[in-house]
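name: query_chain
kind: protein
chains: 1
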Amino acid sequence: MEGSMLTLEFVRAFIGEKMYARGMQEYTEANVFNMEITENDEHYKLITANVQGEEYYSVHTVNIELSPQNEWITKMSCDCEYFDYRHTPCKHIAAVLIAYVKRDDVQPEPSLRKKHTDKSFKEFLSSYQAHTNTFTERPLNIILEPEISPKFRSDTLEVGFKIGLLNEHLYSIQNISEFVENMDGEKSKKYGKSLEFTHTLQAFHPRYRPLVQYLVDYVHDETSYSLYQSMPGYRMMHASDLPRRTITVKSYAIDIFWDTIKDLPFNIKEHYGILQAYTLVDGQPSMNATIEKVEDGYQFNTTVLPYITGKKHTYFFDENQQIIYRDERASQAFRKLIDYFHNGKSENIFIAEDDIATFAKNVFPILQKNLTIQTDGFNPTQYLPEIPTFEIYLDMPQDNLITGELFAIYSHGKYNIFMLSENAGNRDLSFEKNMDHFFSPWFSAYDTSNHRMALTDDDDKVYRFIKFGILEMQAKADVFISESLKKLKIHSQTRISIGVSVNHDLLQLNLLSDQINLKQLNEILSKYDPKKKYYRLKSGEFVDIDENIQALASFKDAMNLSSAQFTRGTIDIPAYRAAYLDQLSKTSILDIQAEENFRRLIRNMKDIEDIEYTIPQEIEPILRPYQKKGFRWLYALKENHLGGLLADEMGLGKSIQIISLLAAWKDRKRALIVCPSSLVYNWANEINKFMPNMHYTMISGFANIRKELIRTSLENDILITSYDALKRDIDVYRTMEFSCQVIDEAQYIKNASTLAAQSVKAINSRFRIALTGTPIENRLSELWSIFDFILPGFFGSYQKFRTNYELPIVRDQDEFLEAELQKMVTPFILRRRKKDVLHDLPDKIEDVYFGQLEDEQKNLYEARVQHLKLMLQKQSDEEFKENKIAVLAELTRLRQLCCDPHLIYDNYKGNSAKKELCLDIVENAIEEGHKILLFSQFTSMLDTLTQEFDKKGIRYHKLVGSTPQKERAEMVESFQTDDVPIFCISLKAGGTGLNLTAADIVIHYDPWWNTAVENQASDRAHRIGQTNVVNVFRLIIKDTIEERIIQLQKEKSNLADRILSGEGVSSATLSRQDLLELL
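structure:
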């Protein structure tokens, strides 16, 4: 093939006819795909392809390497079982080679790719076929009997075979290759006069089929190997070209062969070609030897069996009993002796006195382990050398160099074991060698000039040598250590005492260390690596990185201590570290000594519930017990110059707890509340509702108006602004000082790099509180950013926090660090779930959330109001009565404008205050794991909201009047068990008759002012079967028809019902003045 490219003829010859045919089938069925052909630096072609496996889900990967110029196959591999077991070409390799040769032809269509029945199920189905055949064709029960000639010198077996019917005359197979070709082609052949059959595996007796398959596979493998080795030309070769009467089973394959025939009859060809039936048994044969004292020496006699060795076993042949013993693979030393006894025909050996010592020392122990030995006048111990003791001399002649000398001590002298020439005949060199094998690995090199071992420039080895090596040497020898090496110590159980006291508004730490000074200790901690077991000081000494060092490293990071602070030993830290230090003093192995003034501070912080901070009398009766506890917690934080995160679940009234704090704070100056823009007016409404005498200012409107509002605010004013407005006005705020700063929906600053986060942290405020209903325990970057606001510097930089806490906890699941972090933050987080305070709550909590019209939406609304006022004012009483329907339509448009101007103005581009408020509530509720019912009487509003949900990837159900009854029932049933968080319902379509107790939050987007209708809708969630507290939120736009109707509803509920339900429109009791009151 020299100078030519790969051809199909060569592939067929290389693979073999049967495997080539299988490969062609794989190629034809388009099972070869993803074939890539590349060249390496030496211009060898590398072919990589996938081949579809027999099961639909299995895919095999084939790699083939072709030589330059003539494209010889130099390497090949496939990840299928066939190739892994035989290391010969499989059908997948064949298919890829065919695909490579035919790569320029039109390829088979993938659509033609045939799917095969799963292999295991196909075999299951074949059992039915086999069962059916038993009725149509009598099994032939042909047997294949091996005749084995062991070749002891080469560890091989020559095996021939006889064939015939069970219990009848057997015929020798004259050509094994032809037999295999007949099996491959399922051909018929006649053996002698009485045996002719079609060669299939089923024709053979079941016990003999594994042997038949073994023989077929053997010839296939050998044929492929022969073709693969033929260089450089080739010719067409077939199995029948290699006639033979026997196969040769080599040492590496002997174990598999014996496993195949172990339960079958077989014959062994003994001397002179005599065949004898043998039996294979597992176990060690009984072999004997005798040693007898005779004149001038000893007579040694032994009877050992010939053997053949495989990869795992040695097989001993006993001709007397016709048994083959299969034993664990014999040692090389024992096989060497057996070979000598057989090859030298020397089973009776005379050993002179001069040589008996060598025999006793080297040969007798091997024989004793494997044979039954009888002795007469022979005592091996008297010829064995004296067992030495050992002395080891260790020294450190210079820095970073440790030397070791090893001496064997005999009664006749002391010998350096690295100088074997000294009196070697009288030394137990084997025993010394074993000691050398133990001693030398503790070092890194051999010093040839001084005949000693050396250890240099390897801290890991030096540490192990000092900590473990010397101790282990002392267990085996007398060890002498120089004074210079004794100075190389390992410090363990490093202890440090930490004194804690209060110094004005700060905590003072005093660090003391007995064993090593603080500078050295800081050196260790600055390069602390929890994966290392030690640290080496500049002095050369080692320090164990034990639990004390680990605890101290965690302490230094948690306290955010600099190297300079640590080395100085006396450190001032913020008071907010007190609770963490108190926990450490009880749980850590660190020795923390708390002085009395520190213990007093801790008692004050712990007695929050017992300290009666006065709640303003206007608000005290309204607060629930858990809210009073929240007030005391907030006030205690303020009193102790700390900060906190109030993380109560949505609906538990975080804002009223903050308002209570601000009202009770007697000497408070300005306070700043920062929240999403949709909640600014809600905060104002909450203050009006609970503390109407407390002054506040909403910072909204255009930039110049906002700045003027900020500048003219009162000294004890509460400024309420949005995150967006704060970013724009930050330069004004920088010049001001605030007693208190509150950020609502603190997840807005979870990304510390945003302008919102940077702005709230830039405010000069003495007491800081963050509010969120979203759990943050598993979002460590968000936790860092919030704590960087409430307690600046608490964790240091984010990069440091990420390295010390976030990555080890999230990536490495470090439970120790997670517990440490929990200890640090717990005192500053108060989170209650509804389920935790059920006894304090009614089963339904109703709240009104207010929004405010701004910009274009406000202009459109006011214009529409003016238009309606003019229309009413110009009409006579008679005209008013005739046009009430048109007036009612105008009222509906005003309410739609409050919902979203898009409902009546298709081209509206501005914002919708209520839609933004609703989306904020929905997203926060979903974050907390709640399920929500969202009601609106306008189906077009539900369409608008669901479009927003689609953009945000929020899943939902939607039920409107046109929803078919069957689909409606399926949605209701699904919502009760699925993980879809929100159900959007048209008030008229779903206000009654639904059981939706999976929801625990109800939102009335545009409440139906008939209270009974609205309550019926809320009761879809709040009914029998509901196990949670239900929160009902009504969304109202302030200073609009919506707010005025609430007021009117309280005063003239019947009139409000008539106006907005359409009832009584023609009634004489509905006057123009009634409608003007709404506008």
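note: The two ends are 100 Å apart (CA to CA).
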